[in-house]
Design brief:
Strand content: under 5%
Number of strands: 0
CATH superfamily of the largest domain: Winged helix-like DNA-binding domain superfamily/Winged helix DNA-binding domain
Number of domains: 2
Largest sheet: none
Distance between the termini: 44 Å
CATH class of the largest domain: Mainly Alpha
């Protein structure tokens, strides 16, 4: 079943929407959650929560790209669960490393942006990503959206781990400068 048909099932409040979503995207969503959480049970719970969140979101939302819509929900739920589980303990999990890397850009500050500022930040990030060549953009997205490890990215891209680490470091530095030049507090 294609995305348009699945979204139509949500709008019709047809229970088959969840089954079709699971058939089409279950393994994709589980992979996202598993890379972030590293725990099969927690990952499955996040994916189940994703289906509920999708059910409650459609309508009124009508996603044009269902995989991105569901992936974003799963990613956000997984990071929320990760933060809760690790509030008192700091581990060496891949997610912790990724959050540490991104803190170089945000300087670890938790800022609450209004909706307008958040939308402006999203547009600016998209503009930055569009300015990168396809290889660097792919590496950056694999790392910071899909939470791939450096070694997995190296295997996937046919590069050495040190080359991937250098690309990521330079891209984070470029992003920090890009955001700063556009008035975002770093």
């Amino acid at each position: 079943m294609n995305d348009i048909d699945i979204v139509k099932l949500y709008f019709e409040r047809d229970d088959r929407a969840i089954l079709e979503t699971e058939k089409s995207y279950g393994s994709f969503l589980t992979a996202i959650a598993l890379r972030i959480l590293g725990d099969r049970l927690d990952s499955e719970e996040c994916v189940s929560d994703t289906y509920l969140r999708a059910w409650n979101s459609m309508p009124p939302q009508k996603p044009s790209k269902l995989s991105a819509f569901l992936g974003r929900i799963t990613r956000n739920l997984s990071f929320d669960r990760y933060r809760i589980k690790n509030a008192e303990k700091r581990g060496g999990a891949e997610t912790e490393i990724i959050l540490d890397e991104l803190s170089e850009i945000t300087d670890g500050k938790d800022s609450t942006y209004g909706e307008v500022e958040r939308m402006e930040l999203v547009k600016t990030l998209n503009s930055f990503l569009a300015s990168l060549d396809a290889d660097k953009r792919s590496i950056f997205v694999l790392r910071y959206w899909y939470s791939y490890s450096v070694s997995d990215i190296a295997l996937k891209c046919g590069k050495s781990e040190s080359n991937i680490s250098v690309i990521l470091s330079r891209t984070r530095n470029a992003l920090r400068i890009y955001l700063s030049e556009r008035g975002f507090e770093i």
